[in-house]
Amino acid sequence: MSEFPKTRLRRLRRTEALRALVRETKTDVGDLVYPLFVVEGKRLKQEVSSMPGICRYSPDLLPKEVETIAKLGIPAVILFGIPQKKDGLASSACDPKGVIQQAIHSIKKAVPELLVVTDVCLCEYTSHGHCGVVVDGDVDNDKTLELLARTALSHAQAGADVVAPSDMMDGRVKAIRRALDENSFTHIPILSYAAKYASAFYGPFREAAESAPQFGDRRSYQMDPPNWREALREVEQDIAEGADMVMVKPALPYLDIICKVRDAFNHPLAAYSVSGEYAMVKAAARQGWLDEQKVVLEMLTAIKRAGADIIITYYAKEAARWL
Asked: Which of 62, 74, 139, 273 has CB 3.0 to 4.6 Å from 313, enough for a Cys bridge?
């Protein structure tokens, strides 16, 4: 290796043009997915108090919002539904006239080219707030699979482009793939929340989606934060069951997991920069403690540098204007 003074690594940092020319990691608006919360009803736009700038929309108000998203160049949205009625079996999750199904129709009518990804989970639809059928105080894995498959199928029938199971039940990808294939939806890809951790960073989301568990927690099915080898096993299993894309969630506190998954697998990799990440930056920025734009773009760069191809972020609209 050459030594100083012949080798001067600062030469390529001297101007922005030089820095841009040799930049190793580039984040583009085409990498971003914007989450949308959809609430049952009419003419509703409700700001989420713990997530400034993020709102819940009724399906009839989605066209204006998604037109803005599309004009910014953001290629996709991911939908989370909040129904009026909940029960122990998440009955409204697979209702053809349910809130997400209505939302898909509304978006596709307004902006057909916008990719619609649907979160396939039951926690927003159950009266107890857990992600499946509860038996004797715990979520019954195998009884939940049929409900997840029916929900994913209903999303595909409504016009979803991608279904994204986030429940962390064993075997859910296989069950969903079978349901889709048996009903002539072989073309619909599955984006699996393959390594979803039982994280404390989800707090604001649970307010937005009204999905906090009414008892206990989700640590018996979401991943234990100290584990990384288990994440690779989860990803490997979901790919074997038919996942077309995989996800790590959360993003920023789990950059090492994103990196390890990228090194181990060639499938398209998404990372979800979750509500807690968003809320912390918003709160600090409002206090004047940091430069919001610079911090957000640095965060997105870090997630992309770790290996993510796709970034789901509540900052997608603002980042699209900044990039």
From this structure: 273
Radius of gyration of the chain (CA): 20
Task: Give residue 2's pLDDT band: very low, low, confident or very high (50, 70, 90).
Answer: confident
Whole-prediction pTM: 0.95
CA angle 39, 156, 274 (to 5 degrees): 50
How far is it, in rounded angstroms, from Cα 173 to Cα 241? 6
* d(C-alpha 188, C-alpha 119), whole Å: 14
Catalytic sites, residue numbers? 196, 249
Domains of the chain listed by start with CATH number: 26-322 (3.20.20.70)
Cα distance between residue 208 and residue 56, in whole Å: 7
* Cβ partners under 8 Å of residue 189, min gap 6: 161, 162, 163, 244, 245
